[in-house]
Amino acid sequence: MSQPSSPKAGPTRGRMSRRKSAGPVPYDFRRPTKLSREHVRTLQIAYETFARQYATVLTSTLRVVSQVTLISIEQLTYDEYITALENPTVMAMVEMEPLSGINIFEFSLSTALVCVDHMLGGPGGKQPQRPLTDIETPLIQGLLTRVLAELRYAYEPITEIRPKLGSIEYNPQFVQAAGSSDAMIVASFEMRVGTEECVATICMPFGPLFSKLQGDGLGSTLTDAQRQAKEAALRNMTAGLSNTPIDISVRFDPVTLTASELVMLRPGDVVPLGHPVTAPLAVTSAGITFAHAVPGSSGRRLACLVVPTPKEDDR
Fold it and tell me: Where do the segments described as Disordered lie (predicted)?
């Protein structure tokens, strides 16, 4: 999902190496990668188009040679994304209707100050590490508004979006755009403005964008052989999962005890259950309740009969 590029010297080297580190990567089965190769390719085409338009906007607005190149497209949790960012940095909050959630357009604070310097006729160069002033902020907002218009154009093959620029923040730890474990799609770009360079990122919630990627019509471009191979793989996976043994539990409602009561328990003690006599038991797997049942027997064996899920009013 990443394009190779040579390591860069300077302050961006650490961030680029963290995003493109070599070696094995742990796989979390509780958070599987859901982006298929076709989805990544679709996003790659859109973001490469955006990168070219982004570079054109920077060059024409700042009157200095600028370049934007796509580095990678990753699926990360929001906490992983925030942890990898520098502090301070420019984080523009963006709404992209009709996609739900808050999106983040981020790039380094020094690059933002260089852009302001060029817009005001300056030569760029080294900039102090400080937040934007009340005069500089509208200049950056105007630039970002033009850039987001190009993002709307790049996303037209996927879905129609209407980017709307919100507030600008500087401390990643104070930005609560999503839950820490929420899946995000993060696109990273190498951004050069004159001699200044950084890694810019666009972070979007996974769910709303993934639903649009599923309806991107890629299936219509598959050949008959590819479609048959895809259907055969789906059948094989379904057959394999259907025969996989799963531990199932039939449980009463849990009982709450204090620490002292738990320590004082001895053989022969009676622990009253709070489960109503008329309420069915919960059928669970991996801590998830997926059905309800009443206890009984089948011949000489204990058994349970699955019943409709009771309503809250009935319970």
Answer: 1-31
pLDDT digits (tens, 9 = 90+) for 13-36: 444 444 444 466 666 666 666 778
Give CA–CA dist 264/216, Å, rounded.
61
pLDDT value of position 276:
85
In sequence order, the β-bridge partners of residue 102 are 95
Identify the residue whose tokens are 């057959």: 239
- Length in residues, the chain: 315
What residues contact residue 3 under an 8 Å CB cut-off, 6+ apart?
Answer: 69, 70, 71, 72
**Non-local CB neighbours of 287 within 8 Å, separated by 6+ positions:** none
Q: What are phi and psi of 207, to 5 degrees?
A: -55, -55
Give the CATH number of domain 249-307. Answer: 2.30.330.10
pTM metric for this prediction: 0.60
Q: How is the chain split into domains, by residue range?
A: 13-21+31-220, 249-307
113 in Cβ contact with 127 (< 8 Å):
yes
Residues in contact with 208: Cβ distance below 8 Å, sequence separation at least 6, in sequence order: 99, 100, 101
Read off the DSSP letter of residue 312.
T
Tokens found for residue 156: 């037209």
Q: Tell me, what DSSP letter sits at residue 106?
A: E
How far, in Å, CA of 315 to CA of 312, rounded?
Answer: 5
| Confidence check: pLDDT of 179 > 60 | yes
- Which class is 13-21+31-220 in CATH? alpha beta
